[in-house]
Amino acid sequence: MEIRIGVIGIVIEEFKSANKVNETLHDLASIIVGRMGIPRPERGISIISLIVEGTSDEISAMTGRLGKIQGINVKSALTKKLED
């Protein structure tokens, strides 16, 4: 099984989308190793960075679900692969 570790960056540009982001992250919490959120109300955005560990399919599912939320920008960077 290929396990990958990486970072996912999420920029929330529409505050009304924040609840949907948090619900999605809760549903997929099993692959989240760490999370840091920085609100920037003076800029009208919030930023969340995640450290994730899981299979390519699990991480892709997370970024795919997040990417479908209106007002959200998502990017990821992952290790090539780790053996479990």
TrEMBL record:
It holds the Pfam family TM1266-like. InterPro entries: Acetolactate_synth/TF_NikR_C, ACT-like_dom_sf, FeFe-hyd_TM1266. This is CopG family transcriptional regulator. It comes from Desulfosporosinus fructosivorans.
